[in-house]
UniProtKB/TrEMBL annotation:
It comes from the Bacteria. PANTHER family: TRANSCRIPTIONAL REGULATORY PROTEIN NARL-RELATED, TWO-COMPONENT RESPONSE REGULATOR. The keyword Protein transport does not apply. It comes from Saccharopolyspora oryzae. SUPFAM superfamilies: C-terminal effector domain of the bipartite response regulators (SSF46894), CheY-like (SSF52172). This is Response regulator transcription factor. The modification 4-aspartylphosphate is found at D54.
């Protein structure tokens, strides 16, 4: 059973998502919150698999809520999915940097929404390569000073290569083709790199790759 926490300041939005989710045999809404602070408290109480968090809320917004969940070791199993009306705007970008597994636009089709919840529950990031490339565009527009190594010395050469390709927007199949390996081996390299870098998901792996200096927008 996939356990879901809904965090949105609009009761009608929460009610619509709850009705859709509770109609599924394998999904259960365990709690609802009207702001990010309450959402974090309920996440600690219920330990859901997925927290669907509105990016813009009063009191504590979705970015801060995401950061608190991502930084709490007790909530390592909770995958935050940001809900937005606006697509990949600055707020969503900052939420992904804070540790969100991905984002969904609120006008998504119901079947696509349910599929996305199940994808996130498996631990896969809700970031298509096209979205990864939009993240890269943000790094090009707002280049960052490289942070510390963030554990890069623990990566093998092949894992570093795979991470660099992820950071440039390639899918696992494209990584496999570029590295002349099987897609399963490519996925293994990516997953091991995520573990070593303590990245919660593929979205955070992209951010870490740029922040660590492993790749830069000016050196593809």
């Amino acid at each position: 059973m996939i356990r879901v926490l809904l965090v949105d300041d609009q009761p009608l939005i929460r009610g619509g998502f709850r009705a859709l989710l509770d109609a599924e045999d394998d999904i259960e809404v365990v709690a609802e919150a009207a702001d990010g602070g309450e959402g974090v408290a309920l996440a600690r109480q219920h330990l859901p698999d997925i927290a669907l968090v509105d990016v813009r809320m009063p009191v504590v917004d979705g970015i801060e809520a995401t950061r608190r969940i991502a930084e709490d070791p007790a909530l390592a199993q909770v995958h935050v999915v940001i809900l937005t009306n606006y697509g990949l705007d600055e707020h969503v970008f900052n939420a992904l940097r804070a540790g969100a597994a991905g984002f969904l636009v609120k006008d998504i089709e119901p079947e696509d929404f349910l599929h996305a919840v199940r994808v996130a529950a498996r631990g896969d990031a809700l970031l298509a390569p096209s979205i990864t490339r939009k993240l890269i565009d943000r790094f090009v527009a707002q280049p960052l000073e490289p942070a510390t190594g963030r554990g890069l010395e623990e990566l093998t050469n092949r894992e570093r290569e795979a991470v660099a390709l992820v950071a440039h927007g390639l899918s696992n199949d494209e990584i496999a083709e570029r590295m002349v390996i099987t897609p399963m081996t490519a996925k293994t390299h990516v997953n091991r790199a995520m573990t070593k870098l303590r990245a919660r998901d593929r979205a955070q792996l992209v951010v870490l790759a740029y922040e660590s200096g492993l790749v830069t927008p000016r050196n593809p």
